[in-house]
């Protein structure tokens, strides 16, 4: 009986969230919406220690590029311009787990790399 009481006292309570269901947005087509992230730091290999990951949310195609964790936002923007968007298109939506400050600074650097203004 002791085991049962300890289990009851320590078990994780899972509460079901109530509220409305929100269906996922229907994607318009390939490379209209992407997600991006940086994985790192990783063990160094040829002076590189991180990976940029870009996923097309429609096709689930993954694009990877090795980088250094100290890459500048302008460097990331130029990498996107030269390696990804040159082959596909500029997405309408970019999802990132970074804060809004990071995203705003990135967009500024990206528009500079494109030679455009926002």
Describe the structure in your own words.
The protein is α+β, with helices and mostly antiparallel strands and 118 residues long. The protein has a single domain, classed as 2-Layer Sandwich (Nucleotidyltransferase, domain 5), CATH 3.30.420.10. 31% of the residues lie in helices and 20% in strands. The chain is built from three helices and four strands, in the order αβββαβα. The chain has a four-stranded mixed sheet with strand order 3-2-1-4, with no helix packed on it. A hairpin with a 5-residue loop joins β2 (50-56) and β3 (62-67). α2 packs across α3.
Features:
118 residues; four-stranded mixed sheet
Q: Strand-and-helix sequence, N→C? A: HEEEHEH
- In CATH, what is the class? Alpha Beta
The shape, in one word, is: extended
The largest sheet has its strands arranged as 3-2-1-4
CATH architectural type: 2-Layer Sandwich
The average pLDDT score comes to 79
> How many strand segments?
4
* CATH topology heading: Nucleotidyltransferase, domain 5
Protein topology:
Blueprint: H1 2-10, E1 33-39, E2 50-56, E3 62-67, H2 73-85, E4 93-96, H3 100-114
Parallel strand pairs: 1-4
Antiparallel strand pairs: 1-2, 2-3
Helix pairs in contact: 2-3
